[in-house]
Amino acid sequence: LRGKGYDPDVLIMTATPIPRTLALTVYGDLDVSIVDEMPKGRRPIETRWYTERQRAAANDAIQRAIQQGHQAYVVAPLIEESDGEIRSATHVADRLHGLFSEASIGLLHGRLTRRAKDLVMEGFAGGAIHILVATTVVEVGIDVANATVMVIEHADRYGLAQLHQLRGRVGRGPHPSLCVLMSSGRVSADARARLDTMVATRDGFQLAERDLALRGPGEFLGTRQSGLPDLRAANLARDGRVVEEARREAFDLFRRDPGLVDPRHAALKDALVRTWGTRLALGAIG
């Protein structure tokens, strides 16, 4: 950045795509740059949504990957069984041992010791483990270019951001990759919308916008992580252009009158202190 003539005091970086309207609202005082190119050599990831009736097709995808010398992830939401409806990682690992008797299968979850986790990951990264069954501990920080299949059990129970992160564990090399979203039983309308969106797009920013529309952004300066924000009229998923215009007007006003001392701005100052003063612990402005 400095080589290009910039001299930032603070640099904030995130790998999680942020909806444009949220970026304008939460990080409106920063210059926001977006890196949306795929790393060199990466192949697009195909995504399919299978129901339990298509389980054989998911197993076939894993089998093909192994036969071609590649590896697969299978992610489950629980470590052990809690009820009969949700498959756990231990149950899935046992089932896969029976299906793929010649494959080496590893199990990774949060209750393992650090050393045990390291041994499993070393085996998978080195190719000794063909199928890694795991909980969402593999969501970030795992980079195995030879892994080409990701099967997510009970995918309807995950949010879009987590599904996108899990899908990103494959497609990290030059090989065609597949993400299979498995669901069983009745799927809610919201879950159906999430799964349809995952199949339709690989763009993390489009997914972030869709996530914002589906569950709301929560509070920007509070503790709620979903639902409608504290805006009386605007809808951040719909009114991006209005939010951008309001931001420009606000910055222009504060450049002209940073302390809001102009009598014409007295009502605005009172409203600002009344609305945000307690929450931000601001006794006065200016």
Mass-distribution shape: elongated
**Quick one: biggest sheet?**
6 strands, parallel
Q: What's the tally of helices?
A: 9
Count the beta strands: 6
The rounded Rg comes to 24 Å
N-to-C CA distance: 33 Å
**Residue fraction in strands:** 5-15%
Q: Give the strand order of the largest sheet, numbering strands 1, 2, ... along the chain.
A: 1-6-5-2-4-3
Pairing-aware structural class of the strands and helices? alpha/beta
Order of helices and strands: HEHEHEHEEHEHHHH
Range of helix content: 25-40%
Provide tags for this entry:
alpha/beta; disordered C terminus; 286 residues
Textual characterization of the structure:
The chain is of the alpha/beta class and 286 residues long. Helices cover 37% and strands 12% of the residues. The protein has helices at 20-26, 55-67, 89-99, 114-125, 160-167, 189-200, 204-215, 240-256, 266-280; strands at 45-51, 71-75, 105-108, 131-134, 147-152, 177-183. Strands 1-6-5-2-4-3 form a 6-stranded parallel β-sheet, with helices on both faces. Helix 6 packs antiparallel against helix 7 (204-215). The protein is elongated. It starts with 19 loop residues before the first helix and ends in a 6-residue tail after the last helix. 26% of the residues are buried. Residues 219-226 and 282-286 have low confidence and may be disordered.
